[in-house]
Amino acid sequence: MLIIDAENAVTGRLATYVAKELLKGEEVHVINAEKAIISGEKRYTENKYKEKRDLKNKQDPERSPKYPRLPHLFVKKIIKGMLPRKKASGRAALKRLRVHSGNPLGKEGKKIEGVIASEMLRKYITIEELCKKLGWRGL
């Protein structure tokens, strides 16, 4: 079992690393999902995800795409997008993934080199801030 700490981690890079480990057969737990970041200007990122949430299928609104507001489900959806969902290996890999807000396991997670945002990164938004803008009420 691999425990990964997502604090100050760039979400896309974290997702690719986690997806590769899942496809190798590892069981992965991602902790502190709400503290992960998305690089880019805040307003642009907020507007991008608000537009995605507002997409509706006019013919059948029930079949519209669903985008989560909860931080741990938000990160899980990003990781899910990196897996081959039409193959049996991708579906099995997704079952081995657990994403948590905070640290319910009480264990220290592994910080991955190359994923953690350095001090040079200036424009970013945390998953927690973004989810609050999308309608999550917080803890």
Properties at a glance:
single chain, 139 residues, alpha/beta, Ribosomal Protein L13p, Chain: A, 3-stranded parallel β-sheet, two-stranded antiparallel sheet, 5 helices
Using the coordinates shown, work out and report the CATH topology.
Ribosomal Protein L13p, Chain: A
Largest sheet, in brief, is: 3 strands, parallel
Globular, elongated, flat, extended or rod-shaped: what is the shape? globular
Counting structural domains, the number is 1
Please mark out the parts with pLDDT under 50 across 5 or more consecutive residues, or reply none.
none
Could you name the CATH class? Alpha Beta
Question: Portion of residues in helices?
Answer: 25-40%
* Classification by helices and strands: alpha/beta
Number of helices: 5
Give the terminus-to-terminus CA distance: 27 Å
Name the CATH superfamily classification.
Answer: Ribosomal protein L13
Question: What does the radius of gyration come to?
Answer: 15 Å
Give the spatial strand order of the biggest sheet: 1-2-4
